[in-house]
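Input sequence (166 aa), recorded before submission:
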Amino acid sequence: MHDLNIKLARAGLHDMALVSSLASGIWKEHYVPIIGAAQVDYMLKEMYSAESLIDQVKNKNHIFYLIQSAGQTLGFISVSAEKENEWFLNKFYILGNVSGKGFGTKVFEELKKTLSPKKITLTVNRQNYKSINFYFKNHFKIDRVADFDIGQGYVMNDFVMVWAEG
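Predicted structure, token format:
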């Protein structure tokens, strides 16, 4: 896995159906044990439908990248600029069959080459230990605890984590 050639391909609006499909598979595998099937279904419908993803690109200035290796799409990333050289990492999802093998770190390194960031901020569920440990390994620090009401009685209980250059 460490010798894979990683490519981040900028996704267009025509790619949002693929992103939605990837999200569905990844979320159902990874998040059901953490937040339950009902909340996963709600979040997929509200935030990961092709229509919602297109809206995120058009109206929220999200930039999507498909994570590709050996001609396959293995996940996706979404970022949005906060200030010059400061980014918010909205989404970072990799298929479970390549997770935990150093692949995510290679993807993060490629993202840093693409963005040349001074700072990257993200939110991660406080029970998502695998992802939290990944971010720690990649030099993110917990900045604060935050809870976000996402509607229908669901709340995201997150850590806000920050990576800073240097």
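Checked by second reader. The two ends are 27 Å apart (CA to CA).
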